[in-house]
Amino acid sequence: MTKLPSIGKPISRLEGRLKVTGIAKYAGEYQAPGLLYGYVVNSTITKGTIKIIDTADAKALEGVIEIFTHENRPSTAWFDFQYADMDAPPGTVFKPLKDNEIKYNGQPIALVVADTFEMARYAATQIKLAYVEEKFETDLESNIDKARKPKKGMASMLKPPPPKPAGDFEKAYESSFVQSSGEFKHGTEHHNPMEMFATTVIYEGKNRLKIYDKTQGTVNSQMYVANVFGLKMKNVQVIAPFVGGAFGSGLRPQYQLFMAVMASLALKRNVRVTLDRAQMFTFGHRPTTLQYAKFGADEKGKLNAVYHKAIGETSQFEDYTEIVVNWAGMLYPAENTLLEHRLVPLDVYSPLDMRAPGGSTGMHAVEVTMDDLAYKLNIDPVEFRLINYAEKDKSSGKEYSSKELRKCYLQAAAKFGWEKRSPEPRSMKRGNKLVGYGMATGIWDANRILARAQAIMTSDGKVEIKSAVTDIGTGTITIMTQIASDELGLPLEDITFSFADSSMPFAPIQGGSFTTATVGSAVQVACRALNKELFKKAKRDKDSGLADAAFEDAVFSDGFIFLKNSAEVKYSVQEIFAANGGKEIKTTNSSMPNPLTYGKKIKLVHSAVFVEVEVDEELGIIEVTRAVTAVAAGKIINPKTAESQILGGMIWGISKALHEETILDNQFGKYMNTNLAEYHIPVHADIHDLDVVFVEEEDDFVNDLGVKGVGEIGVVGMPPAITNAIFHATGKRINNLPIHFDKLL
Amino acid sequence: MNNFSYIKVSDAKQAIAELNGDIRNKAVAGGTNINDLLKYFVTKADKLVDINPIQEFNSIIRLDDGGVRLGALHTNADTAYDPIIEERYPLLSKAILAGASAQIRNMATNGGNLMQRTRCYYFYDISTPCNKRDPGSGCSAISGYNRIHAILGQSENCIAVFPSDMCVALAALNAQVNISGPNGERKLPFANFHRLPSETPHLDNNLIHGEVITSIDLPAEGFAENYSYLKLRDRSSYSFALVSVASAFELEQGTIKNARIALGGVAHKPWRVLEAEDFLKQKEPTRENFSQAAKIILNGAFGYEHNNFKIELAHRAIIRNCLMALYPESQRPGAKPSR
């Protein structure tokens, strides 16, 4: 019998070989007859209007087919809502080439289409432009007086506004035994996946397109294209089999998709538009955010007052929000809370969810403030968390579906060797280096939404599972195959997971750490339905021995149906196919949480992060020498791909704490370091020992699989843990991220 | 298309002949910088003269005076790992290996390293004013994001820094640049090769158009006993120095006989102050004396909104690196601070 379950086994990525041998194809790599290449022209001013856009010289160049601008673009959908994608924040979606108005620096203002990429790119430099410039505002801090409440919209469902104030914060804070208050800031960050955004559109005749797109949601792109260009959904097929990282940047259709489709429809040709690295800085990003935190605790270390306010930037056209300030309330049982989130619209593009959006921002302020209180109380930071351990979510009054955070603290602390910490800052040394230990908590949502999946068994007994979901590098292909394998009782080799095609059963955008719970549940349901179908058909055979059996007693294994309580019964599914003439058996199912019960408990992933830093006392140079993260995320389907998710998140956390920032020059209203030489992320030499521990956590409430998702949690606790370790090493609290080493001089 | 001609040349004479004339005739060797500059439209070329095939430029040879000649086309990687360089000029080897990435060092050449241009953001962004790229247009960095910019020798026209690590060591070692041009051969002491921005920030160095670097000579004294290269930056590899220091000493019975200190990442050229080196002669190699030397080196330094820290950082880095030079084995890969 096949060795099952495969769930819980560290299976290597099924597509790994394709990726490392270069066989895996990405959106910008599909060839097509007579393919044309588009290159986007971006505005070099930040705000104003285009007075002249003269394309005559550029268009006269040999090999240039067409140049699209606001003056000659084909007409597209009229209404705002037709541009809205699944992840659109409240407001007015940006429409490329709509008119001559410039809303932000780097705005796409023209598309050159030529028979080579090089010619398109060169011709783009030959377009003559004259602008009328207007005064712009891109600096958050100098526009803080414009902060206002975010508008609510569809996006508020997954991103609820902060809960109402509880108790009387001011009074409680004033009378607290210890107080901690701080201001926090981080700058803009851009996703920068390795793979550039690209779209290859295959023109398949009048109003029918096959589109290879870099996206985190094939159906999302399909819907956008159909709505904007007035096509039928069934005539737009969006495919994204491999995605070279996205981190949230592919949650919304980006402008290369619009441009490529527009050109293809207008020219009736196959068209590809690829963005270059600098253009990867001309759309969504993690917003610059200012935070203010004031926490108060009593003499026993009980937190009684929590104030957390965040002011983030957004564009002038959409109210992008993220959950920044709700976390402390879900994590610590303070009686008096005041949580506020505000936005300042600036002349920038709309921000966009970037790995652990809001959570990694907010928890930086929360956990650094907690650390500061622990020092002021002279209580060990872990002990302080345990004193304030919530058994119930105070902010909503609901039970947790499961919460093994305590085990995370204890197991990670033990693995790290936290007991060797001497509490006093600057008290630990190694040669000429100050050594610091720091810890922090991580928290993230465990959401699940609607998805569909299909299971098809062919007469050879093999099964194909279909879902429109992408695999953005997370291991989704492997995990879905494992789920199907266990449900069907078939070895992994007998299962093919077909995915990332909008013509397949619906899957939502891949983000928010909800893919395994959402699509995995659909795959499980579809496979169970297939088994039921097989069972039903088997029962029709009077000699099967199953005629009186109940489905609950059936065991499916290696193409046979067994009965739990009967050793004699062994029925081959081949007999079913023999009876039906070899016709495939197909089941398609939807799966979503029960709306009546799902909201009754609060569903969260937790982590505890411990970090050691070394700081050169004389020069300030910081090294993260060790880090341990313990994660409680329900059932871990695949410890290998899950560990990779956490490790990647931890490295991103190091990046966020010490390296990563998009430099905004407010003289020009533009980003200055738009390449990977100057946009610093860690190199190998910056990464030392990283350890991941998965804590056992059973959760039969979240979904039947008991999974919560691990895409985001790895990032969340790292920046505050590093900040706290640096404080322990140096006695300095640096609350602006990234922490430049010269701040420690 | 922005068409340019491309020609491969196999000897120096041919290279000089092909480069002669239009300022947009450019030499290309490893291409690790000029290719970027062409793609960003910072530099335009009508003719690219590929000098890679010139055999006579691609070698490391011993000189009769005890020195060593580094061919202009020898790669940075081959130079850094050359047994003669590792043994006799370890300061140069360490400085090269602190720069760029393994892939870039495999392509980049010694001559090209001297010719690389600044990494100032505004120089690379053709939509912003920059006197170096477009003389007379203004300097965006002075009032912009100037964390990576100069604190020494800058002018109101340009505060860019020269990004090389290798050249900091070459400056400290008193190298000499050998040049061939339409009017024959000439030699420049390393200190006179690169220029300060002054009124002419568009000129990085004193090479005249049509000339090529043929080789770089190292004098016999390589300071192989007491040397150190320290590079301070925002990540551990593949980033340019905010401050770097090359230190080298000849010690005699506990006192300094000969001192060399050069800084990178702080000026439009590798920064050396002979007065500071003279000050250290016949002195004990102590923290106090190194601090005094640092003060002399940094005399007149001034910064801007985002790079003021470089003055104090450079002071500390000089002291630290001079102390590290007393114990060269304390050097770590990537020219990190000693443990």
Automatic annotation (TrEMBL), chain A:
Superkingdom of origin organism: Bacteria
A Pfam match: MoCoBD_2
Matching InterPro entries: Ald_Oxase/Xan_DH_a/b (IPR000674), Ald_Oxase/Xan_DH_a/b_sf (IPR036856), Ald_Oxase/xanthine_DH-like (IPR016208), AldOxase/xan_DH_MoCoBD1 (IPR008274), AldOxase/xan_DH_MoCoBD2 (IPR046867), AldOxase/xan_DH_Mopterin-bd_sf (IPR037165)
UniProt domain Aldehyde oxidase/xanthine dehydrogenase a/b hammerhead: residue ranges: 21-135
SUPFAM superfamilies given in the database record: CO dehydrogenase molybdoprotein N-domain-like, Molybdenum cofactor-binding domain
PANTHER family documented for this protein: DEHYDROGENASE (PTHR11908:SF153), XANTHINE DEHYDROGENASE (PTHR11908)
Name this protein carries in UniProt: Xanthine dehydrogenase family protein molybdopterin-binding subunit
Organism of derivation: Flavobacterium chungbukense
Automatic annotation (TrEMBL), chain B:
Keyword terms: FAD, Flavoprotein
Entries under Gene3D superfamilies matching the protein: 3.30.465.10, CO dehydrogenase flavoprotein, C-terminal domain, Uridine Diphospho-n-acetylenolpyruvylglucosamine Reductase, domain 2
Pfam families (UniProt xref): CO_deh_flav_C, FAD_binding_5
PROSITE patterns listed in its UniProt record: FAD_PCMH
FAD-binding PCMH-type domain span: 1-223
The protein's name in its UniProt record: Xanthine dehydrogenase family protein subunit M
Organism of this sequence: Flavobacterium chungbukense
